[in-house]
Amino acid sequence: MMYGMIHLCNLQEKLTLTDLGILMTAAVCHDLDHPGYNNTYQINARTELAVRYNDISPLENHHCAVAFQILALPECNIFANVDSETFKQIRQAIITLILATDMARHGEILDSFKHKVDNFDFTNEEHVTCLKMVLIKCCDISNEVRPTEVAEPWVDCLLEEYFMQSDREKSEGLPVAPFMDRDKVTKPTAQIGFIKFVLIPMFETVMKLFPQIEEIMVQPLRDSRDHYEELKQIDDAMTEAQKKKTENMSLGGKKK
């Protein structure tokens, strides 16, 4: 997805080669050694990761640390020929991007980009850093941009991961997020809110800077929203029909 966005937005003409390398490397490394339980669980369960990182983006800090442990191995060091000063800057930039994928910071990062997008300046380092943060965020949660037949199996995997976490939280007496609770969530309800209130607003903001993403990325998101809203209507109708059937059966029982 990152490679696609770089080409679609023609970033090879707007960013440095170093920036492109930072974007690609951060994208590859951004979820390394993910345990399948989110930051909220880590913090509430007081896991080793939460304790190590003082409850501050424990997972993202861990993904970063693992990335640089791998890069420190001579056979894996893709930056071996980079001078130490440049490596410091690359390392800092990759850390910034991976830490930006913590969804707890979503509002803060998107707001910052919204303030810059109308007068965006590719020569302004702060602007470019903010753009790179938004790009990795887009790629990180871009599943619904893909065609339904590609995206949907991943939604099933994601929900299974959520349900495993909420089952564990219940068994450990920890708080459970409603969007992860198998008793409260269906695939359509899980996706509709996320697409409408997180994905579309973020991609539409990026679209102000790169109008060419509308057809290839934003329109599929709108189609996906419509698809899940249709599925929800079908689910609701079936639930309603089942409810009426149950009521009629109980009324029939009373008449006898």
Notes on the protein architecture:
The chain is mostly helical. Helix content is 70%, strand content 0%. The chain is built from eleven helices and no strands. The longest helix has 43 residues.
The count of β-strands is 0
Rounded to the nearest angstrom, the distance between the terminal CA atoms is 63 Å
Low-confidence stretches: none
Question: How would you sum up the major sheet?
Answer: none
Q: How much helix, percentage-wise, in residues?
A: over 70%
What's the average pLDDT? 96
Q: Into which percentage range does the β-strand content fall?
A: under 5%
Name the helix and strand elements from N-terminus to C-terminus, one letter apiece. HHHHHHHHHHH
Class per helix and strand makeup: mainly alpha
Pfam families: PDEase_I
Binding site for Zn(2+) 2: 31
Pathway: Purine metabolism; 3',5'-cyclic GMP degradation; GMP from 3',5'-cyclic GMP: step 1/1
Binding site for Zn(2+) 1: 30-31, 140
